Each structure stands twice: as structure tokens, then as C-alpha cells.
């Protein structure tokens, strides 16, 4: 998913216009007026992405694992997470970011996978959560404005909130909580089953070899890029009157979807 950098005070009114739904209670119903549960279905992440709160996140990692958090890698280390008072143990954590990457002595970003070491473990129904250090955006508003704008345009977009974060007791400042674009996100917006299709990092240049595409779970689940190759063959084929039909057919057969990691 392409991330736009929208600037200007004309968008300022959007920051508070798309607040998350009321927090869900522990029985799965949404909290109504006065905290009384309603019959509304449970929505994973409703509490985590509640913008009425400045959330608090405490991350504790063994001293022996801190060095791995200073390396750009997909490997995760076990950590204890306390989110707004709720404690989860043996959560998988890694440092995230490329141009925004910072060491643990500075302000690292975090990718958190709650079931990395404990099968089925969730936070507010979520499997994963991204904590962006937002070091390139001193306003902490760009992602909220951007994704709110996408939703107002009728496009699916990650939910966003803010939190103060600490690592091993050291305050790291204000972070942006981002909903990862994963199987849960796709199921919520498209009814898609990740087991029935591939999930790619986007954007993508069709003139490049498909082997260069970033395919999620490729090794673990022995996935192939046949779907992307089929789409590429059509996109790069000479345009003719049958082009729209051929493109629609391959999209319906394979359903290739871009993602943001």
C-alpha cells in the first residue's frame, strides 16, 4: 500500500474526525453509554486503537537479547509487554524501520508478534502490532492524516493511535501505533484468507523480475510467485481490445494483493 505524505492545514480537521469505535469489553460486546455492554460484535483492536486515550506500552527484554534489537533482522526476541496495564509474556519483538531505524540506545521502532512464542496469544484480539518511532515526523500526525484520508475516500487503511513507550524501564517517548496489513487486516476488509493467496510488499514495478518481490511467508509455507508472474505477463502484454478482460480474469483467479510491512 502506498503511503502518501499529505501536508497542509487544510487536512488538520481530519485528525480527530475518525476516532475509533467504543472499546470492547472482555465478554466481546462493545461498551455502551455508562460502560454497559451492548450486543455489538467484538472487533479486534478496538481498545488498542482507541484514540480517546494516550496508551502506555512497557517493553522488557532480557539484557542478553538487547544486542539483537540493534540489528536489522526479521528474527524476534522474547519480551514481556504491558499494554495499558495488561501483561503478555514471551511476545516476539524486533526492531523495525529502514530510513527510520534507530538503535535501542536511541528511539527504536518495534514490530510485535504476540503469538511468536505462545500459540494463540493475542492482545485485544490482535496477532501483531507496529510501534513506529515517528522520528521523521515531529508532528506525530502524518500517518493519522494519511490513513484517515484513505478511509474518507472509501479505501481500506490501517487504524492508528498514539502511545508512550518504555524499553526496560527507560522512557522512549511518544510512538504511533499502527495496525499491520496482515491476514487479519485482509479478512476484515476483503474477507480474504491468507492461506488461499499470497501477500506481497508493495508498491511493485512490473518491469522487475518477480523473484525480487517481497513475498510474505514464502519459505515457511513454500509459496510460489506464479500468481504475480501471471499478472505480470498480462500487464506487460501488448494492449488490445481484450486487455481489460484478460486483466480481470487473472485478477479474479489469483487475487494478488499488495501490503505494507
Question: What is the topology?
Answer:
Elements: E1 55-61, E2 77-83, E3 86-96, E4 109-113, E5 128-132, H1 142-152, E6 160-167, E7 170-178, H2 183-190, E8 199-201, H3 226-235, H4 243-254, E9 257-259
Parallel strand pairs: 1-6, 8-9
Antiparallel strand pairs: 1-2, 2-3, 3-4, 4-5, 5-7, 6-7
Helix pairs in contact: 3-4
Can you walk me through this structure?
By secondary structure, the protein is of the alpha+beta class. 16% of the residues lie in helices and 22% in strands. It has 4 helices and 9 strands; from the N terminus they run βββββαββαβααβ. The chain has helices at residues 142-152, 183-190, 226-235, 243-254, and strands at 55-61, 77-83, 86-96, 109-113, 128-132, 160-167, 170-178, 199-201, 257-259. The strands form 2 sheets. It has a 7-stranded mixed beta barrel. A hairpin with a 2-residue loop joins strand 2 (77-83) and strand 3. Helix 3 packs antiparallel against helix 4 (243-254). The N and C termini lie close together (9 Å). The relative contact order is 0.13. The model is unreliable at 1-37 and 256-261 (pLDDT under 50).
Amino acid at each position: 500500500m502506498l503511503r502518501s505524505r499529505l501536508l497542509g492545514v487544510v487536512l488538520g480537521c481530519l485528525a480527530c474526525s475518525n476516532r475509533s469505535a467504543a472499546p470492547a469489553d472482555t465478554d466481546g460486546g462493545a461498551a455502551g453509554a455508562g460502560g454497559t455492554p451492548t450486543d455489538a460484535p467484538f472487533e479486534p483492536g478496538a481498545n488498542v486503537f482507541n484514540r480517546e486515550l494516550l496508551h502506555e506500552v512497557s517493553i522488557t527484554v532480557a539484557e542478553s537479547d538487547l544486542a539483537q534489537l540493534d540489528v536489522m533482522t526479521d528474527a524476534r526476541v522474547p519480551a514481556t509487554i504491558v499494554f495499558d496495564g495488561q501483561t503478555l509474556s514471551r511476545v516476539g519483538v524486533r526492531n523495525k524501520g529502514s530510513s527510520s531505524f534507530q538503535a535501542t540506545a536511541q528511539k527504536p521502532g518495534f514490530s510485535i508478534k504476540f503469538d511468536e512464542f505462545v500459540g494463540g496469544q493475542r492482545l485485544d484480539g490482535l496477532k501483531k502490532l507496529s510501534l513506529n518511532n515517528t522520528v521523521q515526523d515531529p508532528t506525530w500526525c502524518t500517518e493519522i492524516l494519511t490513513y484517515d484520508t484513505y478511509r474518507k475516500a472509501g479505501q481500506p487503511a490501517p487504524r492508528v493511535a498514539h502511545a508512550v513507550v518504555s524499553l526496560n524501564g527507560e522512557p522512549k517517548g511518544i510512538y504511533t501505533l499502527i495496525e499491520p496489513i496482515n491476514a487479519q487486516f485482509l479478512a476484515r476488509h476483503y474477507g480474504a484468507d491468507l492461506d488461499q493467496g499470497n501477500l506481497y510488499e508493495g508498491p511493485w514495478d512490473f518491469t522487475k523480475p518477480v523473484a525480487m518481490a517481497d513475498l510474505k511467508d514464502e519459505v515457511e509455507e513454500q509459496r510460489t510467485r506464479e500468481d504475480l508472474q501471471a499478472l505480470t505477463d498480462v500487464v506487460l502484454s501488448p494492449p488490445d481490445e481484450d486487455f481489460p478482460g484478460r486483466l480481470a480474469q487473472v485478477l479474479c483467479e489469483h487475487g494478488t494483493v499488495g501490503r505494507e510491512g
